[in-house]
Predict the 3D structure of the following.
Amino acid sequence: MLGLSRFSLEGEVALVTGGSRGIGRATALGFAEAGADVVVASRKLPDLEKVADEIRGVGRKALPVAAHVGRMEDIHRLVETVMAEFGRIDILVNNAGSSPALSTVLDIEERLWDSIMNLNLKGLYFLSQAVARVMKEHGGGKIINVSSIDGYKPEHSIGPYSIAKAAVIMATKSMALELAPYNIRVNAVAPGGVATRLFDSRWFDVPEVEMKEQKSAFAKALPLQRVGDPDDMVGAIIYLASDASSYVTGETIIADGGFLLT
């Protein structure tokens, strides 16, 4: 019989990248409310400190760590720091990602391509590798990757971002297959339009009034007729991090307000 206790993360240690705002912050707080101690990582420590204080306010332990997960040396230092503090990592949420910078296939430069791929794909893969080695030694764990609906349906002028997010979906399947013998489950969520700084970045060169009009039109075109909130992603992520999804691996949950139906 499935009870709510199956969704509990009591006694577990979670690492959330991109944890200073948006989906990462909402996930970190959701994990704390579900009983986990939480490590939040991103590039700016002051922003992380604020989230850590919120986690402690829920009654859980928190550790903010400044790290750029697109850099190998930061990945190893991050994992070493978490292990020194907690001695284990039960859950990893690969949420860190770069903005979908506008550039067409005819115009994009190698430097921009590398920047997008390093953070959205390379960093995700090699942080997962480092954490999976820890999880293997401790009997298992859960890895949740944050992809995007752009990984299913590309948008104009953000090709590299869409390509990276599609690759995240395949990386999820590949890692799930290889890590299953070690009781490590790997799944993903693919958010649609969610009210975050990353979502707003696609209108960075548009006047504010026009931006609001375009965002309103986007929302009205969705079956659910609203832009998502970071908290809308938390339920799916907690499900994938908990025992409630104990027989699920290699899957991607789409949470897009019905966007791909249109």
